[in-house]
Amino acid sequence: MVTKIPATIITGFLGAGKTTLIRHMLQNARGRRIALIINEFGDLGVDGDILKGCGDETCSEDDVMELSNGCICCTVADDFIPTMEKLLTREKKPDHIVIETSGLALPQPLVRAFNWPKISTQVTVDGVVTVVDGKAVTDGRFAHSVEAVDAQRKLDKNLDHETPLSELFEDQVACADMLVVNKTDLLNLAQADALVASLKQSSRNGVQIVKTSMGKLPVDVLLGQGIGAETDLASRHEVHHHHDHDHDHDDRTQVDEDDHHKHDHDAFESFVVNLGEVADTKVFADQVSQIISTHDILRLKGFAAVVGKPMRLTLQAVGPRVETYFDQPFDMAPRITRLVVIGQTGLDRPEIEAALNACTINK
């Protein structure tokens, strides 16, 4: 079976912190080779210059591609598709593709583009991440500088210059698999909690919402969601339509653990749980899913020893979605279950450990 390259779409208004988030991701990529596609028309090329400065094997200058002919959701066939095809013809393909949209791009048309025949067989949308300026949204402005957003609009004739930012924001939220509430250092606890509660009400079921500042999000939280968003377009439909109908591309696009998982910002935490063997694979996966939901765990991954099975069971969970498969024999390695739990600070570690321990035997 051909393994598709995962691609993460990162959207959000100008000034929300998309570039800072990506920069932090590159600095903590731990060996992943990441290609970047940056749509920064009207941003004076700043984002691309910042990200080209990563300068190591994780992301060389050749791995940063800039699209500056207009908003990416209006130039899918003419700009984005050729760029993707060029990237996929490289001898050394990336481990992950990250796409930073302009502040006014709608993610839905971009997600649809991944069903283009030459791309659909090679790439899948790992997840759509919408970066939210926590301070601006709390203040009712949605963007740090409304003037800068309006100036960006005027640079692309395809954009609707009259639509309120609130409607553009709703569409970005409607498509998201993860909402990153950035700049929480500018909010008090009550404001941050109120914003998260509001976003939960306006987003789809199962969408993860994380709080951070300065874009400091663990790579294991940002990447590896495994959503396959291009196969789930119906649930992430556009609430509003803001773009010139002459540019509607619907038809055109349909053809390690422990310290490695720790983070330099106290908004997140992780820990390892060592357990006994598992009696039943499906029952165990269902129990883990329930524990994740109960304790609001962002990621849980590792491997398990299943009674009577010589192969170890690899387990990966994003939110309540749990995937399992047998990957390799234990041979002389200890038959234990070892799981890494990742979440925002405040996880009830004793309760989580006790709940997971209750799912295994030979304790």
Short description, anyone?
It is built from twelve helices and twelve strands. It is α/β, with parallel strands linked by helices.
Structure description:
With 363 residues, the protein is an alpha/beta fold. It has two domains: 5-247, P-loop containing nucleotide triphosphate hydrolases (Rossmann fold); 259-357, Hypothetical Protein Yjia, Chain: A,domain 2, CATH 3.30.1220. 30% of the residues lie in helices and 23% in strands. The chain is built from twelve helices and twelve strands. The strands form two sheets. A seven-stranded parallel sheet has the order 3-2-4-1-5-6-7, with helices on both faces. A five-stranded antiparallel sheet has the order 8-12-9-10-11, with helices on one face. Helix 2 (46-52) links the parallel strand 2 and strand 3 (64-67). It is globular. The two termini are 37 Å apart. 46% of the residues are buried. Mean pLDDT is 80; it is low at 42-46 and 243-265.
- The chain-level structural class is alpha/beta
Gyration radius (Cα, Å) is 21 Å
What is the chain-wise order of helices and strands?
A: EHEHEHEHHEHHHEHEHEHEEEEH
Domain count, please report it: 2
- The second-level CATH architecture of the largest domain is 3-Layer(aba) Sandwich
- Span from first to last CA? 37 Å
Gross geometry: globular
CATH class of the largest domain: Alpha Beta
- The share of residues in helices is 25-40%
Fraction in beta strands: 15-25%
